[in-house]
């Protein structure tokens, strides 16, 4: 009996442990099923997110491929100075001083009472401003009174940038019989006197917004200028600054399109080398590093006489792109 008692106690202990263990074992499969279900839901969600990211990646890759093909096609289509030759026929429109007056040719043989006030039948002035209005100037500037350059009525002033301005002079200035124009007195541009939609005024307004870093307003201004004056001599510059307004706001793909347009359509303009540099910088920003390096090399090949600033920018961007 003494030998059996420890054995009985051991068996009872084992049975007690088994009794407690069986309910726990019965609950573990349920918990595992719940956990497995949660993991399956998480895996399905992650799989959906991965598929969406893969789709976006494929779409962006396709867009980048098309853009790179477009860049390579344009470079191959117009090698060397082909773009410059194409842009050469585009000349600046004649200034106001070069355009013949529309009305002076029709009135050349007509009787002008203001030139012969004492002729028979000539009406006498009654004090009305219209009756005393002088005729058009023979030099072809519409709206400029005849002899105004000599008498001080208006002045034709050439700005440093080559633009012609009509400036008001001192009406009390003495007549200069030598025919030389009187000294300038701070005139008013043509845009503010007689032509509110002049190309230069629209360009200057957009460039002013660009200088003040109002890039949204600058974009609208340059777009309006390009739509209103597509053949003006400042179109290459306006296209370049339109691209710069995109670049400054991180819209590198749109910026690259404008810079590419300058380098291909206006290859002979002064902004073409800068546009190629900016094109390479924009391509680098969107991940097209090889195309960016090729663009920097294209600048040196097409414009061997590029300025020191352009060459310095190319060296800097090549190091940044690790060409």
Automatic annotation (TrEMBL):
Residues 85-103 have a biased composition (Low complexity). SUPFAM superfamilies: TPR-like. Residues 1-26 form the signal peptide. Residues 36-70 form a coiled coil. Residues 75-148, 167-203 are annotated as: Disordered. Keywords: Cell cycle, Cell division, Coiled coil, Periplasm, Signal. This is Cell division coordinator CpoB. It comes from Chelatococcus reniformis.
């Amino acid at each position: 009996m003494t030998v059996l008692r420890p054995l009985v106690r051991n068996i009872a202990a084992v049975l007690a442990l088994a009794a407690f263990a069986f309910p726990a074992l019965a609950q573990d499969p349920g918990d595992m099923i719940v956990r497995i279900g949660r993991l399956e839901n998480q895996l399905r969600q992650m799989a959906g997110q991965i598929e969406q990211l893969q789709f976006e990646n494929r779409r962006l890759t396709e867009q980048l491929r098309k853009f790179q093909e477009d860049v390579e096609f344009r470079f191959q289509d117009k090698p060397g100075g082909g773009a410059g030759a194409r842009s050469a026929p585009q000349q600046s429109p004649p200034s106001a001083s070069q355009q013949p007056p529309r009305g002076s040719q029709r009135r050349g043989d007509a009787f002008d009472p203001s030139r012969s006030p004492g002729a028979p039948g000539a009406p006498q002035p009654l004090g009305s401003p219209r009756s005393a209005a002088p005729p058009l100037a023979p030099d072809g500037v519409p709206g400029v009174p005849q002899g105004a350059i000599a008498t001080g009525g208006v002045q034709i002033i050439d700005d440093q940038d080559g633009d012609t301005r009509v400036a008001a002079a001192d009406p009390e200035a003495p007549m200069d019989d030598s025919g030389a124009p009187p000294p300038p007195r701070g005139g008013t541009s043509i845009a503010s006197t007689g032509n509110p939609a002049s190309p230069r005024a629209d360009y200057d307004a957009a460039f002013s917004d660009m200088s003040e870093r109002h890039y949204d307003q600058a974009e609208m201004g340059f777009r309006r200028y390009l739509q209103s004056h597509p053949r003006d001599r400042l179109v290459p510059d306006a296209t370049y600054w339109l691209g710069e307004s995109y670049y400054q706001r991180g819209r590198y793909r749109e910026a690259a399109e404008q810079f590419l347009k300058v380098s291909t359509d206006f290859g002979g303009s002064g902004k073409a080398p800068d546009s190629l540099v900016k094109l390479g910088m924009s391509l680098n920003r969107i991940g097209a590093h090889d195309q960016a390096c090729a663009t920097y090399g294209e600048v040196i090949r097409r414009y061997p006489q590029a300025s020191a600033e352009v060459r310095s920018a190319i060296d800097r961007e090549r190091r940044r792109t690790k060409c």
